[in-house]
Specification:
Blueprint: E1 6-10, E2 13-18, E3 21-29, H1 32-41, E4 46-51, H2 52-57, H3 63-72, E5 76-80, H4 86-94, E6 99-102, H5 104-108, H6 110-120, E7 124-126
């Protein structure tokens, strides 16, 4: 069995939203890369990261934080949230993200999905 912990990001911080409400944010840690290291120390080998800012903006708002997470822990990292262009897919692939999760854009833009899968194969996942 694989247990996959998750880190949700807003403003470069590890957070949780109360029932998905962006107005009700609890900040758990100002250094999400330290959270990733702790997950690894506890036995995790996979990590799910969601850029909640990116989910709203359609940009890689927490790219630098995600890069720190990938570099800090020996985890297989998957990232979702606001990935709506090949530019963003390429950014995440370039820093070593193992799986890039496409959401609504995969459903609304089939050509984008085809291009991403053509370029990155099984590193692309669809979730909505």
């Amino acid at each position: 069995m694989n247990i996959i912990p998750a880190i949700d990001l807003i403003g470069g911080k590890a957070v949780r939203l109360q029932k998905g409400d962006y107005a009700k944010v609890t900040v758990y840690n100002d250094r999400p890369e330290e959270v990733a290291k702790e997950f690894y120390r506890c036995g995790a080998r996979f990590l799910h990261v969601v850029d909640l800012d990116g989910a709203k903006s359609g940009k890689a708002d927490n790219f630098e934080t995600i890069k720190k997470i990938v570099e800090a822990a020996e985890l297989s990292v998957e990232v979702g949230g606001g990935i709506r262009s090949m530019e963003i897919v390429d950014l995440y692939a370039g820093i070593g993200v193992d799986r890039i999760i496409l959401g609504t854009a995969a459903l609304t833009d089939p050509e984008f999905l085809k291009k991403a899968v053509s370029r990155y194969g099984e590193r692309i996942a669809v979730g909505d």
